[in-house]
């Protein structure tokens, strides 16, 4: 599949990396052509050159406040009506995308940084303008980047928070675990490897199990054991409350 990525910031870069791993041909649009060169992809820096290129899907990863204006300018420059437009801005409604590109199939998806290694969690708010073969194309492209969860449009904000922001929260947890291991004498690199392995293994088990996270925790916390003492310490220092507060704050509450 031929895909244009408009905006090569952190998320745009992650998408490019994952799309390349998935065997797609990627074209980048950025005012800074050096970014595209570093990613080893073809690039343009004008809308006129962008619309002259041959691609099937266009991903918009520019800041949310610029999405509709950028899309309208690309359409005005002559964007083909066959191009499927995917916006990565949760705060921009599908109706706004349709208004900016009334003749194109449009929809909103919220990826996260792990798409760079095809391990992303992607929320998709399907729009009425994307049907039949176009819908299949959207799923094929996004599924090459990770797990795709179709959600209602009014759930995009919280889905984007869980998918998009949580990796940073988990990084904070991992960093704290590494620091504790180092404090007990473990080599930093070895601690990082062990923590990453534990998080990956725990996630894989949760994905494959029918048990809730609470039930899985219960399988590890033996009566009077070291694990339950650690869990109680997390509660004592407000770990759960901090997680709740972080997610709600990121979701705008």
From TrEMBL:
One Gene Ontology term of the molecular function aspect: pyrroline-5-carboxylate reductase activity
Family membership: Belongs to the pyrroline-5-carboxylate reductase family.
Species name: Fructobacillus tropaeoli
Pfam family, one: NAD_binding_2
EC number(s) recorded for this UniProt protein: 1.5.1.2
Localization, UniProt: Cytoplasm
Protein name as annotated: Pyrroline-5-carboxylate reductase
Residues reported in the UniProt entry to bind NADP(+): 30
Catalytic activities: L-proline + NAD(+) = (S)-1-pyrroline-5-carboxylate + NADH + 2 H(+); L-proline + NADP(+) = (S)-1-pyrroline-5-carboxylate + NADPH + 2 H(+)
């Amino acid at each position: 599949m031929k895909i244009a990525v408009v905006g090569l910031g952190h998320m745009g870069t992650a998408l490019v990396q994952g799309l390349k791993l998935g065997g797609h041909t990627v074209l980048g649009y950025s005012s800074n052509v050096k970014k595209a060169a570093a990613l080893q992809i073809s690039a343009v820096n004008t809308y006129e050159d962008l619309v002259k290129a041959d691609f099937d899907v266009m991903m918009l990863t520019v800041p949310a406040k610029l999405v509709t204006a950028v899309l309208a300018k690309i359409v005005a420059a002559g964007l083909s009506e066959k191009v499927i437009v995917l916006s990565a801005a949760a705060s921009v409604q599908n109706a706004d995308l349709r208004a900016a590109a009334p003749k194109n199939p449009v929809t909103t998806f919220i990826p996260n940084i792990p798409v760079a290694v095809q391990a992303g969690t992607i929320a998709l708010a399907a729009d009425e303008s994307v049907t039949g073969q176009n819908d299949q194309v959207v799923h094929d492209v996004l599924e090459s980047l990770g797990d795709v969860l179709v959600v209602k449009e009014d759930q995009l904000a919280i889905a984007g928070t869980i998918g998009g922001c949580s990796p940073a929260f988990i990084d904070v947890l991992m960093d704290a675990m590494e620091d504790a291991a180092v404090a007990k004498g473990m080599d930093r690199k070895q601690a990082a490897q062990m923590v990453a392995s534990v998080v990956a293994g725990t996630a894989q088990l949760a994905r494959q199990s029918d048990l809730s996270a609470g039930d899985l925790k219960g399988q590890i916390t033996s009566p009077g054991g070291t694990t339950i003492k650690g869990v109680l310490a997390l509660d004592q220092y407000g770990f759960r409350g901090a997680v709740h507060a972080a997610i709600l704050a990121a979701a705008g509450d």
